Structures are given as C-alpha cells and as structure tokens.
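In the current project phase, work has continued on tokenised descriptions of protein folds. One protein thus recorded appears below exactly as we store it.

——
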Amino acid sequence: MPTAHSPAAPNEPSSPNGPASPNGPASPNGLTSPYPLRGPAAAYDDLLARVLPEAREQRVWTPSDGPMPSLFVSHGAPFTLDDPQWLAELHDWARSMPKPRAIVVVSAHWEHAPAAMSGAAAGTPLHYDFSGFHPRYKTLPYATPDATGLARRLTGVLGRTPVHEFTDRGLDHGAFIPLMAMYPAADVPVVQLSMPGLDPTALLRLGARLRPLRDEGVLVLGSGFMTHSFDVFHEPELAAHTTAFDAWAVDALGRGDADALADYRDKAPGAAVAHPTADHFVPLLLTVGAADDPASAVSAIDRMVMGNSTRSVRLT
C-alpha cells in the first residue's frame, strides 16, 4: 500500500499557541525562533534585494563543466528565512557552481511508495507542510518553470514502470526553503521525488539510479538535517550526542564508507538522540549514492543551530 509521510523539521512547531517572544512566536513546547525577528522572512527579503539581479545572470551549466555534483542540505524550516547567515551560506554555495539545467530533490518530508513525483507544470502551488508560524510564510512564492521534460527523463532513469505524478502536489518546505536561498530567481525547473521508504540501502540505490542525470546538468539534492533532535532544545547537555554524531558522519563521509552510513543506527555515537527517526538522515544516503566518488564530500555549511548540526555537503 502506498504510504505518505511528512515529519516535522527540528525548528518547526506544530501549533501557533504559546507565549510571544522577542525572537518570534512560541510553540506549546516553548520552542521559538533563535533569530531576532524584524518581521517574518525579513532576512529573505534582504537577500532578494541584494542578489536577485546577479542570480538571474548566473552562468548555466554546459557539458564542458563535467557532471553536476550531488548535494545534501540541512534544510531548516521557515525560521531559516529569518537567518541572514544561513541564507547567505546557501546562496554563496549555489553560486560556487554553475546554475543547473534542472534539479531533482528528495526531501525528508515526503515518503511515498513506490517513488512518485511532484507536479511538474510551471507554477505548481507549493505544499506548505507546516503550521504554527506567521501567516506570511505561507504566502511566499517560489514558482519554478515547467519541468515536464525532467519528469519524463526521471521516468526513463527509474525504470520501465511509469512514475506517478501528483500533479497538484508542489514542492514541500524541505525542497523550497533551501532552494529559495540557493536559486532565488526561481528560474530552474525542479521536480521533487518521494522517498519510497526509509531503508538507507534503498536510498543509496535510488541515488545510483539518478547518477546519470548529473552528466546532463541536473543537480541531485538530498534534503534533510545532519542531526534532527527535538530533545536537545529542552536538554542542552544532549548537544554532546548531536556533536558526536556529526563528527562521526564527517569521518564516515571522508572515508567514503557508505556501508557505515547505512548502518548508522548501530555504528554512530548518539544516533538515538541525533535521529530518533530516520527521515532526516536517509536523504544523505541518496546524495552519496548519486556521487561518482563517495569519499569526495566537502562541507559547505557546518554550524550548530539550536543544538543541531546544519552540516551540508557536496559530493562529486
């Protein structure tokens, strides 16, 4: 039976209730934005004002560039749009490589078996899969171009069985939040592919099937969170576990040890705290599977935010 899943991001409250805070709205568990709020998404507004003209002119990939990389991004939640440093890091990272001809993204927030695609038509409405935030976060647009050609190509690389397209399902926040910073002109065709399950080895295999797309200028993007602990918000001493897990992941990536990464539950220190559920870690396995060299990981972002690692990596 097909399954659908949309877990919460680590800084994503589920309800608007709770006391007000100078740093933003609070959820019932006391979680608030760690960023001073001049207004919801004000940092994103600043980014657009600063970079939009140059973003439109970014050089587009050509075959002489060689394959596009595969990326893993720790995507955050709407609060990311209030963090000028995180937004700048994501944007600068995207500027360090050619603009892709298209993007395939697999997010922690969509599990559906068998693998399915989001709507590929231009301007498919976003899937605002969060609550408890200022209403403005659900009005921010990210209207990407027609991606029907990419959808057809995806069906080709994934096998003879047609991949179902949910024509009315747009990108979820695990996809559009980082892309709003990375490609703010919204001028790159994007298709979101569901995770067919949470088995790390299956995600490795799925990434390998997407690998040929990189030779065509397609960016393969796994979107999750290097650590994804809610408990650390209330027990800061648990950051020792998320930090240990992050250091272990860096070492395993550096060795290209895909088997260890797939067996993270048994191999990684602090795994039970860092990832009480698998959904935000296994997109990393997709990224590793899509790479030619699993030992090629380079960290572009490696900050700890609210006790969790925002590490984001590039593989070739």
